[in-house]
Amino acid sequence: MGMDRRTFLKLGGAFAVGSILAPGTQYLVMAQDENSKDKSKSKTRWAMAVDLDKCTGCKVCENVCREENNVPFYGDSADEKRYNAYWLRVADIESELPGAETRHMPIMCQHCDDAPCIEVCVTKASFKRDDGIVLVDEHRCIGCRYCVYACPYKARSIIFKKNENVTNPNVPAMMVGVATKCSFCVQRIDQGKKPACVEKCPHEALTFGNMNDPNSEVAKIIATGNVKVLRPEKRVGPGVFYKGL
Amino acid sequence: MKIKAIGAFLIFAIVLASPFLVALANGEILKGAPQPKLELPKNATKCVEDTEYMAANHMNILKEEREQAVRRGIRTKKHSLKNCFTCHTDKSKFCDRCHTYAGVQPTCFAEVGGCHYAPTSKKQE
Fold it and tell me: Please, which residues 206-235 of chain A have a Cβ atom closer than 8 Å to chain B?
């Protein structure tokens, strides 16, 4: 019995479509495997909560940050000060009112949801991982400094001189002439640890965790509604929350 | 006249080919160019991939590893730079010998602009 023309064309078409699509499904499966390993494609949103009532301005976090991430520090004199890079700086807030005490506030990269530094980056060196961490790919950065000016928190520094004083050999030294900033100690997070400043803070003023997990400490602190973000009018959605601001 | 010209050409050709002829007489041509001598690690017998593949593609592996680690947070041990240096404990006796031979200067470890550390005896001195 012969096949009529209609059936023949139908079968031929189905065969052609199938042969085009079949190899593609293999790649779909591969892509799924890849993504399951991808830490940046998780439902995590790393965030930090700072309790300003507990902060005494001891600057332990600043020094610990330098030691962990090899952030260059050249000295306190006016000439050397210009070159110092800051990933985390403790701001001293003085009041003009008589008798008012000086408050201290650790300020680092706020890891914004809509980070202006990423928008202005011309080489896509600044990027955001899906777990909320904003990073600089120093291999790609050309040092144009757009991001330094775009950041509302002054969180970024340019590395002007080579850092001779390398304290943590597990972290690469910083490239000269590129923008750097707080990475929430991404190398520690990928190992399942907390950022160095959070771990070493002697007053437990810093809390770190997954904002999207309602059982995490950070989420509980944010849920109290007692926290504020810096410069909310910029509407960048910072990932660092300040209690007692 | 013709003979003079041919003679002059022959002398010129011999002078031109003299380095080649000397090398042929020494036997250097048959031996081939001098190869860089690499100091292989004593505590390990096998690299993470085949030797030939590594020699040709180690830079691509490292670049891919870098891209994955920096941009996606996938940090594997097998192809990491750190894992290289667990066996190749002296960069100047393994990596640098081939790099110098081939005239390659990876900026990763360069004096100026380099950020990554390598176990090198030169640095410890």
Answer: none
Q: How far is A87 from chain B (nearest CA, A)?
A: 18
Token readout for A161 is 């001189």
Burial class (CB in 10 A: 0-12, 13-18, 19+), A167: middle
Distance, in Å, from the CA atom of A189 to the CA atom of B78, rounded to the nearest integer, reads 20
ipTM of the complex: 0.72
Q: CA A172, CA A190: separation in Å to the nearest integer?
A: 16
Q: Which of A73, A77, A154, A74 is nearest to A108 (CA)?
A: A154
Instruction: Give the A:B interface size as CB pairs under 8 Å.
Output: 42
Residue of B nearest to A183 (CA): B70
Cα distances (Å, whole numbers) of residue A177 to A160, B109, B113: 6, 16, 9
> B123: pLDDT confidence band, cut at 50, 70 and 90?
very low
pLDDT of residue B125 exceeding 50: no
Adjacent-strand bridge partners of A179: A158
Global pTM?
A: 0.76
Residues A103 and A91: their CA atoms lie apart, in Å, by 8
The rounded distance, in Å, linking the Cα atoms of A84 and A160 is 8
- Quote the CA–CA distance of A71 and A63 in Å, as a whole number: 9
Burial A79-100 (b: 16+ CB within 10 A, else e): eeeeebbbbbbbeeeeeeeeee
Q: Which residues contact B71 (CB under 8 A, 6 or more apart)?
A: A40, A127, A129, A135, A137
Contact list, A138 vs chain B (CB under 8 Å): 115
Q: Is the pLDDT of residue B120 over 70?
A: no
Q: Which residue in A9, A22, A104 sits closest to A60, CA to CA? A: A104
> Which of A35, A37, A44 should we substitute to test contact with B (largest number of B Cβ atoms within 10 Å)?
A37
Mean pLDDT of chain A: 89
Most B CBs within 10 Å, among A38, A42, A128, A180, to test the B interface: A38
Give the nearest partner residue to B74 out of A39, A169, A172, using CB atoms. Answer: A39
pLDDT (tens digit, 9 = 90+) per residue, B88-108? 888 888 988 999 999 998 888
Question: Could you report the per-residue pLDDT of A176-218, keeping only the tens digit for each?
Answer: 899 999 999 999 999 999 999 999 999 999 999 999 999 999 9
